[in-house]
Amino acid sequence: MMKVAEVREMGVEELERRVSEARRELFNLRFQHATGQLENTGQLKEVRKNIARLLTVLHQKQRENVS
Fold first, then answer.
1. C-alpha 7: how far from its chain's center?
2. Which CATH architecture describes the domain 4-66?
């Protein structure tokens, strides 16, 4: 699990890369869950929270650059 302090230190490009990786991971976890191969379903919740955390900081940084 990533902490907000770690996420805030990243640049915009790094955040965008991490978001795409996390979305890919979420897709794979959903696929495993649908086929009955996922043992720890808590991973789904954790990855969704990480995506939300990353997107929140990314949007904040993008707004700072516009203003």
1. 10
2. Orthogonal Bundle (1.10)
